[in-house]
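Before drawing any conclusions, I needed to go through one protein's amino acid sequence and its backbone structure tokens, quoted below without any editing.
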Amino acid sequence: MNTHVSRMMRRLIAARLWLTVYQLPPYAPEFNPVEGVWSHLKRSLANLTKHSLDQLTTLVKTRLKRMQYRPHLIEVLIAKTGLDLQPPQPQPLKIF
């Protein structure tokens, strides 16, 4: 059973009026901004040689930290997904 679309999950979501859930396809890396983060990171490491796992780990952490302080880069990576992540506007209550 897929827990992401289970009856229990739908109930949990419905009970939280503040929560907006977007159902994405099961495998959709083009909709995942994290894929862009990893792609950007890997490109920045492409031609570097490190002599130990510790050196590589330190460099990866440094590059990720650097990305964290570049909000424009993160915005671009999110925009590349083409997703509109703004919460939907509340619909007026219709009384018949």
User: Anything to note?
Assistant: The chain has a mean pLDDT of 82.
